[in-house]
Amino acid sequence: MASATTVCNLHNITESSVTWCKECDEGLCLKCQEHHSLSNEMVNHSTVQITEYEKLPRDNLNIAQNCNKHNENYTIYCKKHESLCCGRCIVESHNECVDFAKLADIVLNMKTSNAFYENDHSLVELSDNIKKIQQKGENNLTSLSERAYFT
Asked: Coiled-coil region(s) at which residues (predicted)?
């Protein structure tokens, strides 16, 4: 994962990123974001606010975006093999397969589904509960240490 504050390649200055482009795998300052969203090549790229990107678990950020074999972006999910595929993978290894899904559609459906929001809410609650349990454990250790000291 790159830092949220990066050197802006377009302007050659250090500028804070305001969005993250998953496909480009880089943070974008406000000016670059505007250029990025207007570019024909990048109009379908999915971006998120940098504050939301930084909240993602590190495990999610380490998921490969490119095919190891062809070094191209994954764009398709093969349902038969339950695997991510680039365009060349489809031609070379999945030409017999018939059940595919576009990754962009899967991501869009996932982001808009109730299950996504329910899971997000549950994870926030779980995180809060873990913090409370940790705090209680620390308080209990402190209390036991104090009792042992006075005994």
From this structure: none
Q: Are 30 and 51 in contact (CB under 8 A)?
A: no
Instruction: Give the max Cα distance, the chain.
Output: 76
- Decide if 66 contacts 72 (C-beta within 8 A): yes
Give me the CATH code for the 1-63 domain, please.
3.30.160
Cα separation, 24 vs 22, in Å, equals 6
Residue 44 · residue 94 · CB < 8 Å: no
Q: Which CATH superfamily is domain 64-104 in?
A: Classic Zinc Finger (3.30.160.60)
Question: Is the pLDDT score of 7 beyond 60?
Answer: no
In the chain, the amino acid numbered 10 is: L
Side-chain-side CA neighbours of 117 within 13 Å: the count stands at 5
Q: What are phi and psi of 91, to 5 degrees?
A: -65, -45
Question: What is the per-residue pLDDT across 131-147, written as a single tens digit (0 to 9) for each?
Answer: 999 999 999 999 998 88
Instruction: Identify the burial level of 11 via C-beta atoms within 10 angstroms of its C-beta, where 0-12 means exposed, 13-18 middle and 19 or more buried.
Output: exposed
Give the tokens for residue 102: 């576009």
Q: Whole-angstrom Cα distance, residue 89 to residue 143?
A: 60
pLDDT tops 60 at residue 4: no
Looking at per-residue confidence, does 94 or 112 come out higher?
94
